[in-house]
Amino acid sequence: MATTADFRNGLCFNYNGDPWKIESFLHVKPGKGPAFVRTKIRNLNTGRLLENTFTSGVKIDVIRIENRKYQFLYANGNDYHLMNNDDYEQIIMQKDSIDNVQFLKEGDNVEVLFHADEGIPLSSQVPSHVLLEISFTEPGVKGNTATNTFKPAKTETGADIQVPLFINEGDRIKIDTEKGSYIERVK
To answer: What are the strands, taking DSSP E only, across 77-155?
Structure first.
């Protein structure tokens, strides 16, 4: 058991029967009344973000979480099949429990968050940067390069992204998966 004094970003705990992760918190000591902690917590089962206030000194049940590396094998509808890189064990995760799934291609490694005591996969995260090939984009118009302009493009995984005018079909680019934005062209 822990109290609100033990709160830190990334701490995982049970709350109302579900596993939650603290995204951010702020201790508040008003001039009148008891102290409290204002938090933003994320449900690890559904991904829902909730703003919640805990009174100071409330006890919480901390859970142990492990990150494990898995390789994405293939998708079958909403089921995504992943394989452990160490023991070749395979698990199936739902599409909505994988962050930024539109940038995931076969063979990519992902981080899977496991409830260590129960051995249940909770969520998964695509790497922060991925290399993808452009499968479709309109050709850039010559003379439109006076300013930093972008055009729509589709990647090999089917994700839509904005790219600079000089990017053509077949080019490989580096993408920031958190923002869903173009970083650079890769040779």
So the answer is: 79-84, 90-94, 98-99, 109-115, 120-125, 129-137, 150-155
